[in-house]
Amino acid sequence: MITLSSEYPVEKMCKSYGVSSSGFYKYKKRKAAYAAKPESVPWAELDERLRQAFKKSRGTYGSPRLAIELNTDPSVKKVSTSMVARRMRYLGLVARQPKKFKPSTESKHNQSISDNVLNREFEAPYPGQKWVSDITYVLVKGHWVYLTVILDLADRRVVGWQLSESMRSDETILPAWRKALENCPVQKGLIFHSDRGVQYTSLKLRHQLRKLGCIQSMSRKGDCWDNAVAESFFRTLKTEELDRHHFTCMNQLQSVLFRYIEGFYNTTRIHTSIGNMSPMKKHMQLISQSLAA
Question: What's 101's DSSP letter?
Answer without folding.
Answer: P
